[in-house]
Structure prediction request, 309 residues.
Amino acid sequence: MTVIVRELRHEDPADTAGFARIRQQALPFILFTPESIAYDLERTHPDAHYQPLLAEEDGEPIGTAQVSLVYDSPDPGQGSLNIYVRPDRTGRGAGSLLARVAEERLAALGATRLHSWVLDEPGCRAFAEKRGYRASRSAHLLRLDLANATLPPLQPPPDGVELRSGADFADDPRPLFRLDAETLRDEPSDIDREFTDYDAWLTETWHHPLLSHELTSVALVDGRPAAFSAARTDGGTRYATVMTGTGRAFRGRGLAKLAKNHSLHRARAAGFTEALTGNDAGNGPMLAINTWFGYEIRATEVQYVRDLG
Prediction:
């Protein structure tokens, strides 16, 4: 059996479908669709040099890698590679070959530090450590049985607070860009990132095919966006909140919880049956909110870091 690695072709439906299927099998708690994979490859900022890779065994896709530079970090040289192999095709060299090709690509692009999310499982961690990566922070992937969950009842917003959907900002989403950029700076991460390019944010976030403007909830205080919960869907029955945050001046008032509850109720009313989210393991306040809603941890990933010398 021969394993090769090649670049994913976004114009080939078989490639994007194979990539999505492998990601779903290896890590079913993050939304991917063939359409979103093609969109990311076509539309991600050129400075990211984003390139998904496919590992094939005798022509059959068995592994994937997402490879890019973190172009919106103020610290140059940050590279990212995330590798997933079909659970029934591990141990055949696909992961090692994907890692080698990805590392060589990032080194040629000038990366000096590599970041990779690795499942918190002995075999996965040993694989990363064997390649010279060291463990850093961890993050939980959570799931809620939305069809059968007992959600907290909807409460009238406090005086001066109004709940809106992302669709209400269709004509001018710039206020949401400013709020997203502010909350991003406080998000726990090994990589500092800054949203400074509004056009790039429009392309990569606001117009992303998975983002649901209708299910994204925004809490306004005296007409100003103060907290939000951004929602994505897979076009079927799966829904995910991919960022929930509050502006610094409005924290401690329960606005993020209010916005997320609003989104969850509307998602269930729209027929979604499964809710997903992610949570930095050290972000106690957000983990407490998700536990309050009834989310359960279904997987944990560890961020591994390697410096290139």
Notes: The domain at 3-111 is CATH 3.40.630.30 (Aminopeptidase).
